[in-house]
Design goal:
The complex is a heterodimer.
Chain A (H helix, E strand, L loop, with lengths): L5 H17 L4 H20 L3 H20 L3 H38 L17 H16 L9 H9 L1 H4 L7 H9 L6 H34 L6 H32 L17 H7 L2 H12 L9 H19 L3 H19 L19 H22 L3 H11 L13 H20 L10 H4 L2 H18 L14
Helix pairs in contact in A: 1-2, 2-6, 3-4, 3-5, 3-6, 4-5, 6-8, 9-10, 9-17, 9-19, 10-15, 10-16, 12-13, 13-14, 14-15, 15-16
Chain B lengths: L1 H30 L11 E4 L16 E3 L7 H14 L4 E5 L7 H5 L18 H13 L5 H20 L18 H15 L7 H16 L3 E6 L4 H6 L8 H7 L3 E4 L11 E3 L2 E2 L1 H18 L1
Parallel strand pairs in B: 1-2, 1-3, 3-4, 4-5
Antiparallel strand pairs in B: 6-7
Chain lengths: ~475, ~300
């Protein structure tokens, strides 16, 4: 079930009603409602993959309990590896089997050995990368004794399959989310109102910004050989806003929905396109994944407290793994490497933690230096997104070659220029709103401090009308991160 | 909680009022006449805008004209299942024009308006039926097609109000195709072709619905007759070498008859309103030809 579907508009009030009115005082009942609702939500796509979710849940719950009772380090390590192998095994099979097979076949053919591959028609279960990482965080934290394992299977199941963030994050840590399932929840009016506001803003980002940009991004990327450099550059720009609107919009809806049920999820995006360098960008983009890699991969590898060579290696590893996490394609790996190359100079000059607060804090406008820094960072990001979006490496290289040809200085030539222009105007308005709301958790989170209730409602209705009139209702455009 | 629910209810009430205004306007502009139907007939003509000029002329021959401007095979399938639940339909005259399986028709159709004809049988389950027939049909906010109509209406009103702008591209209803110069006819036909045939590939979705329609008719012993509507010489000429998505041939493969009237009014531009739509005079002539042919074939 997608957040921008009628099904979800029907589903959410029903679950809300059952949660707060049928089982308001019993945590187990409330958690059971969440588990049932989450399984319905997930099964709406393909009920067959519910079994994978259940396997992950049972394995990690059992491993957690065994880790608590086990004293011998060897045995503890054994149980940890069971969890890692099962979770990553499922992920690896469903996501990477065909990729590795194809690359093995290619590698062997280079040595003159031709192998007939048995490629399987594997369907990628929605959100498998997200819930796998979430459950792994639980086992690793229990193993490291940072967290007491839960004995409540229902609460643990609810933590694994919590429907707002099940299929596209934010990837929550067990230390943050699991205790919330064990505590009594009280309805908080301001939290719920804020949640509704965030849902609305997320829908606007998805339906108006992302899905309209998708039309043009798809047009240029699917037929890149037909367009000149300036049009392709426009295509890359549209994709940059598509992926931001799409993914951060999803996160907003997820966080907002969770707040309606009394849960706090971590912020996943913090105005990344206003970053002044790549290090800042990665502190603001897909925060839950970046911090996951930082805590469970980068730091165990030695992090920044080691020799320069090791620092370079560790940075390289986390960006490549992060790229590979997104999909079984060399384009994602190159995207990861490219980000390593952007990041390394900052790390080596020790300037990677230079910009820790939001740009131009407390000011209306940024300084010239800040504007230039933001522009450069954004340009580097747009360039990297070309690899992320391209079908394969050849496609990405051809796309980039055409952008950097003389046709870059010609007028963009494509059908629907008027619509593209309208789209750019809407994006500009959207970015202005984001700019003025950048000190909040999401762009309109502080609206109650600016407007009184009448104007707030007017703004909400305006947003709904703009979603209606300018939104893209195409059924073909799914959330991008569902495929990961 | 009470405060929250009260606010939500107030807010939803405002949205419902807004929805009501949109619904009322859409009803006046868009839904009007589309939902008209008769259960008194055994034979129905189902086509898109090509069938509209025939109006009620077919009723004389015992056929109810159930065509809707912009109807796709998805909409027609809904209408056929609706007819099956309400009437004793025996014969269906179905458009199999070349563009009916085009991706253009997949984009421009009546998927919102035809929700009115959704029946439990046309849905996978009862939930789907309730969702489409009652939620989606009544909530304009979930209807992209209606949105386009309302947007156009509001933009036109604003343009008229601010710029005193009257739509310069509109064609007078009394003008026939022969009133245009040869150059203008060629240009309009070319534009229409680009619009109707944007891709060499047919729509998978419409192809599936078309096959569903054929199977429904076979399973319910309904006689299906394919009809290709007349086209102007300019349009036939300009679309001569383009891809035909083969709706007619698919129907023939199932053993059904296809009556091809594409060239029946060749070089007779006075029978057309534009490159591919008959005018009133053309419609009167065509109805006679159509049913004369059917009588001969029977």
């Amino acid at each position: 079930m997608s957040f921008n579907s009628i099904d979800f508009a029907i589903f959410l009030p029903i679950v809300f009603f059952l949660y707060w009115f049928v089982a308001p005082k019993n945590i187990t009942y409330q958690n059971s409602i969440i588990v049932s609702a989450s399984y319905i939500f997930y099964g709406w796509w393909d009920w067959r993959f519910l079994s994978l979710l259940l396997i992950s849940t049972i394995i990690d719950f059992t491993v957690g309990l065994r880790l608590q009772n086990e004293r011998k380090p060897v045995n503890r390590k054994f149980f940890l590896w069971i969890s890692i192998l099962v979770n990553l095994g499922l992920l690896g099979f469903f996501k990477y089997y065909n990729f590795f097979l194809e690359n093995f076949v290619t590698a062997f053919s280079l040595f003159g050995t031709n192998i007939k591959p048995n490629s399987l028609n594997i369907i990628l279960p929605v959100g498998i990368s997200f819930y796998t990482f979430q459950t792994l965080s639980y086992t690793i934290d229990v193993y490291k004794k940072k967290l007491e394992p839960t004995k409540d299977f229902i609460a643990f199941s609810a933590f694994v399959c919590f429907f707002p963030q099940l299929v596209a994050g934010p990837i929550e840590r067990a230390t943050h989310l699991l205790p919330q399932f064990n505590n009594k929840r009280l309805f908080d009016y301001s939290k719920a109102v804020d949640g509704m506001r965030q849902i609305l803003w997320g829908l606007f980002k998805k339906i108006v910004i992302a899905d309209n940009c998708a039309e043009f991004a798809n047009l240029f990327f699917s037929n890149s050989s037909d367009y000149n450099g300036s049009s392709l550059l426009l295509g890359a720009l549209f994709f940059s806003f598509q992926i931001y609107g799409d993914f951060s919009g999803y996160s907003d809806i997820a966080i907002g929905t969770s707040r309606l049920f009394g849960f706090d999820l971590k912020q996943n995006f913090n105005f990344p396109y206003f970053s002044r360098d790549i290090a800042e960008f990665w502190r603001r983009w897909h925060i839950s994944l970046s911090t996951w890699f930082r805590d469970y991969l980068y730091i165990p590898l030695g992090g920044s407290y080691c020799t320069t060579l090791m620092k370079v290696r560790n940075t390289f590893i986390i960006f490549v793994v992060s790229g590979f996490w997104h999909g079984a394609n060399w384009t994602f790996i190159i995207w990861g490497i490219l980000n390593t190359l952007y990041f390394l100079p900052l790390l080596l000059t020790n300037t990677n933690r230079k910009h820790l607060t939001i740009v131009a804090k407390g000011k209306y406008f940024p300084s010239v230096k800040e504007t230039i820094s933001m522009f450069l960072t954004f340009s580097l990001t747009v360039f990297a997104w070309i690899f992320f979006r391209a079908e394969n490496l050849g496609h990405a290289i051809n796309y980039i070659s055409e952008i950097f040809s003389s046709s870059l200085f010609t007028v963009p030539a494509f059908m629907g220029k008027k619509d593209a222009l309208k789209n750019l105007i809407v994006i500009s308005v959207f970015m202005v709103i984001e700019w003025f709301g950048r000190e909040g958790t999401f762009a309109i989170s502080n609206i109650d401090k600016i407007f009184n209730q009448f104007f707030r409602w007017l703004f909400y209705i305006g947003l709904i009308i703009s979603i209606f009139f300018w939104g893209n209702y195409s059924e073909d455009i799914e959330f991008i991160y569902f495929q990961f | 909680m009470t405060k929250f629910l009260a606010r939500i209810i107030y807010f939803l009430f405002i949205l419902l009022v807004l929805n009501g205004i949109f619904w009322f306007t859409a009803n006046k502009l868009y839904f009007k006449n589309y939902h008209n139907y008769s259960t008194q007939f055994n034979a129905y003509l189902l086509a898109d805008s090509h069938g509209l000029p025939l109006k009620q002329l077919t009723e004389k021959y015992g056929v109810y004209n159930f065509s809707g401007g912009g109807d796709s095979f998805v909409d027609i399938k809904r209408k056929i299942l609706f007819l099956l639940s309400k009437t004793t339909v025996k014969t269906i005259y179905l458009t199999v024009d070349d563009h009916t399986l085009s991706q253009y028709r997949e984009r421009l159709n009546n998927s919102d308006r035809s929700l009115f004809f959704v029946t439990p049988k046309s849905c996978n389950n009862y939930y789907q039926y309730l969702k489409l027939r009652y939620v989606k049909y009544n909530l304009i906010f979930f209807q992209p097609g209606t949105r386009t109509v309302l947007k156009h209406y509001i933009t036109t009103k604003i343009n008229r109000f601010i710029f005193n702008d009257v739509n310069r591209n509109s064609v007078s209803v009394n003008k026939t195709w022969s009133d245009f110069s040869a150059e203008e006819r060629k240009e309009r036909a070319k534009r229409r072709k680009q619009r109707q045939y944007p891709s060499p590939h047919k729509s998978i979705k419409l192809h599936q619905s078309f096959k569903d329609i054929i199977n429904i008719c076979i399973n319910n012993n309904i006689e299906l007759v394919g009809v290709k509507f007349p086209l102007s010489s300019d349009y036939i000429k300009i679309t001569k070498n383009i891809i035909n998505y083969d709706a007619g041939n698919i129907l023939k493969l199932y053993g059904f008859r296809v009556l091809n009237f594409k060239k029946v009014f060749i070089h007779q531009n006075m029978f057309f309103n534009n490159q591919d739509h008959l005018n009133e005079k053309g419609a009167q002539m065509f109805v006679k030809i159509l049913f004369k042919n059917l009588k001969i074939l029977k």
